[in-house]
Amino acid sequence: MTAPTAEPTDADLIKAHAAGDPHAFNELVRRHRDRMWAVALRTVRDPEEAADALQDAFISAFRAASNFRAESQVTTWLHRIVVNACLDRIRRRQARPTVPLPEQGHQEPAVPRDSMAERETRLVIKEALDELPEDQRAPIVLVDVEGYSVSETAEMLGIAEGTVKSRCARGRSKLAKLLGHLRNPAEEGDVPTYESKHGEGRR
């Protein structure tokens, strides 16, 4: 009886792709697409921009895979490419500012009061993240939202660990001011603050 073939690792898929396997990279994308999409969306805060950035990132990864040296995890390598693609999109968007469309329409279905309050809180946090400069938002997303360590984040962004810590500290300070009104308890109960919900992040 033939033993089952072990599933290839991410590193195996990178090597196979570099060697000319036409299916290896598609499998790598399938494994990590959802996680990379979440990172892109949290970084650029716009679904269309996130989709474009993710496409740019995967094209870059496809082309650069032969240069992967296995000095980091494949997921870390992919995250770095996705974040850089997102930051490129943000810079282009800032160079060509546009007026955002309203997120709520007249045809939007009614939702229960609690769900509406939760949605409003998420929207306030989203808007607060939008207020952060791009150099602070990316570390905050990776450390406080995605849960990466400072060293992993530094590697993804190509900056020193001390820079990650200082940018996170400045970003958290600004978020605390922007979200300070959420600290006051509402009549129905306390509304969670950004810091209480996400913590101080791993150092």
Model description:
With 203 residues, the chain is mainly alpha-helical. It has 2 domains: 8-98, Rna Polymerase Sigma Factor, Chain: A (Orthogonal Bundle); 113-203, Arc Repressor Mutant, subunit A (Orthogonal Bundle), CATH 1.10.10. It is 65% helix and 0% strand. The chain is built from 9 helices and no strands. The chain has helices at residues 10-18, 24-44, 47-64, 74-95, 113-131, 134-145, 150-157, 161-178, 194-198. Helix 3 (47-64) crosses helix 4 (74-95). The longest helix is centred in the middle third of the chain and has 22 residues, at 74-95. The radius of gyration is 20 Å and the shape is elongated. Residues 97-113 and 185-198 have low confidence and may be disordered. One of its GO terms (biological process) is DNA-templated transcription initiation. This is RNA polymerase sigma-70 factor (ECF subfamily). InterPro entries: RNA_pol_sigma-70-like, RNA_pol_sigma-70_dom, RNA_pol_sigma70_r2, RNA_pol_sigma70_r4_t2, RNA_pol_sigma_r2, RNA_pol_sigma_r3/r4-like, WH-like_DNA-bd_sf. It comes from Prauserella rugosa. Residues 124-175 form the RNA polymerase sigma factor 70 region 4 type domain.
